[in-house]
Design brief:
Layout: H1 6-10, H2 14-17, E1 19-20, E2 23-24, H3 30-39, H4 52-65, H5 73-98, E3 101-105, E4 112-115, H6 119-131, E5 135-138, E6 141-143, H7 149-158, H8 165-182, H9 192-209
Antiparallel strand pairs: 1-2, 3-4, 3-5, 5-6
Helix pairs in contact: 4-5, 4-9, 5-7, 5-8, 5-9, 8-9
Length: 211
């Protein structure tokens, strides 16, 4: 790996400067580019009550996004990490919702309440109960739940935390992209526009989860 001097690391990335308020074409000054890119996600504030872990991860993402002006690859890193925070947010919200107890409904017999103290507990118990064809009790519903992303999405819908057609469209898109990031089949590069859109979609879903 080439060792680059600090002055070069501080220099704006020419590719990043090519993205302007009017689209591609021309080139912004570094100061203008830094302000322009930060404004793309400046209003993506999270609602009060969001779990500390989710909030910290999201705010770190917003802080790092600004450095894309210095290194274009940062936008890809931000976009990928945002997709992983999506699942973190669902897990954090699930732990608040269950308040230490999850209940499964087997095909026969009474409901089975189980104590959990972490999401690792949830996954272990959910995996066992799923193998026994039991379903998670959510309000008046029983949904398939193995602790993975798909099950978390079903739970959030059944619990009334995620609602509406637009939300479902965004969920589907983020879930597909998240699976691509978690199980990559090749190299990819995000633009500042794509990374900002992913961050904005993530903020919208997090705010829905916490009302």
């Amino acid at each position: 790996m080439e060792i680059r001097p600090l002055a070069e690391l501080r220099a704006a990335d020419n590719l990043s400067l090519s993205f302007t308020p009017y689209g591609l074409g021309g080139r912004l000054e570094p100061e203008d580019a830094a302000e322009f890119q930060q404004r793309q996600i400046a209003d993506c504030d999270l609602t009060d009550g969001v779990a500390a872990g989710t909030r910290d991860s999201f705010e770190r993402l917003r802080a790092v996004f600004a450095y894309g002006v210095l290194c274009y690859d940062v936008y890809t890193l931000v976009g990928d990490q945002a997709l992983l925070i999506y699942e973190q947010a669902l897990r954090d919200r699930f732990m608040e919702w269950c308040a230490g107890t999850i209940t499964f409904r087997p095909p026969y017999g009474p409901d089975v309440p189980l104590t959990v103290t972490s999401y690792d507990d949830v996954k272990k118990r959910a995996g066992k109960m799923t193998r026994e064809r039991s379903k998670l009790v959510v309000n008046a519903h029983a949904v398939e739940f193995n602790g993975m992303l798909h099950g978390l999405r079903l739970w959030a819908r059944a619990a009334g935390l995620l609602r509406g057609r637009r939300s479902r469209t965004v969920e589907d898109a983020l879930a597909q992209l998240r699976n691509h990031v978690a199980h990559p089949s090749g190299h990819h590069v995000d633009t500042p526009v794509e990374a900002a859109r992913t961050v904005r979609d993530l903020a919208e879903l997090i705010n829905q989860l916490w009302g």
